[in-house]
Amino acid sequence: MFNYTFHWHQAFQALPQMLWGALITIEVAVISMIFGIIFAVLIALCRLSHNRVAYGVATAWVEMARNTPALFQIYMAHFGLGAFGIHLSPWWALLAGITFNNAGYMAETFRGALRAIPATQTRAALSLGMGPLRAFWSVVMPQMFRISFPPMTNQMVWAVLMTSLGLTVGLASDLAGVTQELNVRTFRTFEFFAMAAVLYYLIAKAVMLGARLVAWRLFRY
Amino acid sequence: MSVNKGEVVTIIGGSGSGKSTLLTCINGLEPIQGGKITVDGTVVHHPETDLNKLRQKIGIVFQQFNAFPHLTVLENVTLAPRKVLGMARDKADEIAIKQLSHVGLGDKLSVYPSRLSGGQQQRMAIARALAMSPDYMLFDEVTSALDPQLVGEVLDTLRLLAAEGMTMICVTHEMRFAREVSDRVAFFKDGHIHEIGTPAQIFEQPEKPETAAFLKVAH
Amino acid sequence: MFHTALTLNDLLFLAKGAGVTLAITAIAVLFGTVLGTVFGALKAQASALAMAPLTFVLDVLRSVPLLIQLILANAFQSIAGLGWSPFIVACVMLSLYTSAYCTEIVRGGIEAVPAVTRRAARSLGMTWGQDMANVTLPMALRVALPGWIGLTLGVMKDTALVLWLGIIELLRSSQILVTRLQEPLFILILVGAIYFLISFPIARLGGRLEQRWREND
Fold it and tell me: By residue range, what is the domain housing residue C45?
């Protein structure tokens, strides 16, 4: 039926290289999540503030991140910023794009979570003499993360999947990039990308499992 | 109205009469439109007043227990002493354990609030406020959200505090408690003090007809 | 003051790209929803064991990057001698991808209908089909619709990935213009605005519906 011989051994030989690529993939995903979360908290706070400028900038970020393709956001980082004299390498453009995207989506999650926490929690904290910042940090924010945890886990998986878009801006070091390099050299597209697909699947499952463990440890109450 | 050190003043009145708002005005959580509130000579609503410092001196317990769900009972009580007063962990733990034992929760230190009954959570809230060593304690209808059988344990804690000489202002519906424990009782109506006097005066011989009418229904 | 080499023809070119984007989206959402509804209804009814193979396949569709899936599918059809155009590959894969997410949305919607309600309907003498059509699916729809709208918008944005297969959709069209006109920032912003103008109103509508239905409950 197939006028094609599958050369799986080539794919297996390339496994070590692809595993290194997988490491880069995870690295980009993790960094994008860390900064994404930091920005998302700030954005969520800005969205709840009365300052017009803060609210405007925060809302613009969220709406742009959620209403345009992630690929577009990565293109913007790579090609668009060039007009401002900022030339990001493929790795940095990918990271910037994914972080921008992460922050936008998680900010909405956090905003919803903050609305679910009764204002009386803040009131109790203030009554104990805590300043507003301390009240947020020690009392409100931990509860916000607990409520937001499942969506954050999903976002982490998406971040991993989004790293594959690095292909389109020429990134050669992550899993997809490495696979493409091998593909271009040997034209064994199916075998190599099938192996990559398996690796992505395993990483996604590992993230979900890891999240389950973290939740079990952190949210004992 | 002025409250002296060691006094227990109870505030009674119908819903919406402004009793709870008075308490949240005293510690600066609510703004005021007129008049003045001073605590130990500090004007509460003065722009230069350090509200955080003020709130260290005034403990307040609300109707909703407001337990911090992500912290154990012990951590709930040590949070403010450690972060606001900068206390070292073991010293904070010491004080917390003392206060928690005082209110009868000495065996629940590493439990999360979700496992506690309403009465226990409320007593934890009291211990949490006491851990800051306040000079004054405000209680805002602290038993109103509790099942009837749990009310007693919280009132007992309040009685204990009163007996130890804490200066307290309690907003409450519990008339028997008000009668037993207060040095003075204030009847609130339409946002101001309608009548104020000793428990004997208010409960036995109220001067104003509205006070009498309220007491007849409330009893 | 502001000068651009963009001509009307270029704008039409972009519009054509947008048309391709919308066409692929429509096809993927149509087939994906039909499949997703079938799968979702099945998963809500049948045992987890019987559904395990399907669950696994759908899980894979959600756990492998869409770009990789497109590349794999293209390579596969070439090996198998299917002779599919990139457009067909894109539509097939996006339909399957959509169905994977739609399955969960439909299943969630059906499971949100309280069992007692369905039992009440059957006790009134309705058949399984009548219960489904008149009681369960309408209620499930209310729960599922906001998620489905979100999925549709997501698919619309994901169609940008098919540019890798050589299809001239909206984003690729813009890149072609950029290569010719050398105005990357302006054209990108323009394209971003187009995506935004397509997505934002629908997203708001979905949010408004969700709110209105929540208030009525």
Answer: 8-213
Contact at 8 Å (CB) between B132 and B80? yes
Of C83, C86, C113, C72, nearest in space to C217 by CA = C113
Give the whole-angstrom CA distance, residue C20 versus residue C166. Answer: 12
| pLDDT (0 to 100) of residue C206 | 87
Domain boundaries, given as residue ranges, for chain A: 8-218
Residues of chain C contacting residue A193, judged by C-beta atoms under 8 Å apart: 68, 71-72, 75
Residue numbers in A near C69 (CB within 8 A): 197
Residue C131 included in any domain:
yes
Buried b (16+ CB within 10 A) or exposed e, C179-193: eeeebbebbbebbbe
The interface predicted TM-score of the complex, written ipTM, equals 0.91
Does the pTM surpass 0.90? The reply is no
The fold adopted by the segment(s) A8-218 is MetI-like fold (1.10.3720)
In this structure, what token pair is assigned to residue A93?
A: 């453009």
Chains C and A touch each other (3 or more Cβ pairs < 8 A): yes
Q: How far is C99 from chain A (nearest CA, A)?
A: 17
Integer Cα distance of B104 and B155 in angstroms: 13
Burial A55-94 (b: 16+ CB within 10 A, else e): eeebeebbbbbbbbbbbbbbbbbbbbbeeeeeebebbbbb
**pLDDT tens per residue across span A99-109:** 999 999 999 99
Which residues in chain C are closer than 8 Å to A83, comparing Cβ atoms? 184-185
Write out the two tokens for B112.
């999360």
Each residue's pLDDT tens digit, B10-61: 998 887 778 888 888 888 888 888 888 888 888 888 888 888 888 999 999 9
Looking at the structure of chain C, the number of domains it has is 1
Q: Which chains touch A (3 or more CB pairs under 8 A)?
A: B, C
